[in-house]
Amino acid sequence: MTIKELIQKLQQFDPSLPVLLSGYEGGVYQPNKVYEVTIALNVNDAWYYGPHELVHDDDDWYQGHERTQGVYIK
Predict the structure, then answer these.
(1) CA 16 vs CA 13, 31, 63: distances in Å
(2) Other C-beta atoms within 10 Å of 39: how many?
(3) Residue 66 Cα distances to 4, 53, 55, 57, 62, angstroms
(4) pTM attached to this predicted model
(5) Quick one: pLDDT band at residue 58, thresholds 50, 70, 90?
(6) CB contact at 8 A, 38 and 57
């Protein structure tokens, strides 16, 4: 999903509603930070991991995997 697609989806809701994310083992919480990050794409195969990983531009992890910028909400 892109930021444009997210904005389009969010426009159908009352703008005063809170944004919620799933908690680690249940419940929900409100995010409090938004970051622009670099991710390595499609590095994890296990179902219990997300497919992508956050990386620093200067590290050598995940060599050979395509990298891109993204927005991370925490």
Answers:
(1) 8, 15, 43
(2) 20
(3) 22, 11, 11, 12, 9
(4) 0.79
(5) confident
(6) yes
